[in-house]
Amino acid sequence: xxxxVTIIAGCILLLLFLSCHREDNWPNEKCSxxxxxxxxxxxxxxxxxxLTLNFKYHNAGNKxxxxxxxxxxxxxxxxxxxxxxxxxxxxxxxxxxxxxxIVINEHPDCFxxxxxxxxxxxxxxxxxxxxxxxxxxxxxDGTYHLLIDFKHQDAGNQFFNVFVRxxxxxxxxxxxxxxxxxxxxxxxxxxxxxxxIAINDKPGCFxxxxxxxxACKEESCAITDLKTDVGECTSxxxxxxxxxxxxxxxxxxxxxxxxxxxxxxxxxxxKxxxxxxxNFKVSGKDFDYLRICINDKADCCKxxxxxxxxxx
Length: 312
What we know:
Structural class: mainly beta
């Protein structure tokens, strides 16, 4: 009986000892990063290269980490599970040594830094090759769809310019959007149309092509069903006049309104039809007169005469 009590008492003392030892001496483990390894890879341009990094982490308390360059410039947030990690197109700082700082996400005091020598990246020669042009459907105004695509190397720019003859710029587009369709490419009027592709800010990096355009005919502009609705008089010589008409293949967003003697009284938007012209002036004749023309298309017009109201 005494032996059993002794054993039980001994166990109790041991538990108390372990408990006290745990409370007094258990280490307060903090987040830490160690063994940071940096490996520079191939150049991806004259100012960028691939950068592979790896490190050990303890008690991170987060699944993510942030990567900064100098001046605390954040370049990305990544998963710890993805280590070792390759950062594509890491930008050179321009200094003899580049700099990187690794910080556990939401733990700004848990970080590690490193300086390292970047690779020597020389700018390659900009090249454009394999320019392809594919003509597509015609539009009502005589223009057509033109699909363009090409290969590029060491462009050093995200944009390219498209020119037609006489170095006339028709647009600037993103290389990332290739292949690209220009939906309103204008016919030159020659047997062959012409295009020139040049990398933006690099006029010496270009390629040209000639190609046969589709047989597109511009459909004739027409104004039909012109109607006038005489409204109330606003003075003894003016009244409100409502006009409306149908238009086909206008090729313009605006129309002009003329009275007798080719006097233009206003330019309006087609989308605003039907339109009320306020304070329209009485001509002094039994019938007033209007002529509607699509803006910039003097041959696409329609005229009408209508009874003048008796404004007194």
